[in-house]
Design the sequence.
């Protein structure tokens, strides 16, 4: 599951807008946007309720998968 995204780069002139080019093509461009960003909004990360029985089954399934991965790694 991806938890980070790569937004489109945004640049600013590093030359003070003297080169006559667009900011992305300025030879002294400066990146002003972060390289990565969260993929979900705050409401998309809210916790949800899960019944205890389902949690037990999910944890058991994870343990079985981990065990199978360890066996496959040793083969």
Sequence:
């Amino acid at each position: 599951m991806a938890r980070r995204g790569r937004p489109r780069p945004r640049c600013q002139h590093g030359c003070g807008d003297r080169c006559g080019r667009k900011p992305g093509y300025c030879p002294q461009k400066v990146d002003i946007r972060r390289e990565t960003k969260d993929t979900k909004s705050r409401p998309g990360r809210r916790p949800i309720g899960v019944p205890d029985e389902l949690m037990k089954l999910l944890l058991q399934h994870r343990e079985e998968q981990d065990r199978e991965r360890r066996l496959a790694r040793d083969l």
User: Anything to note?
Assistant: Helices lie at 52-74.
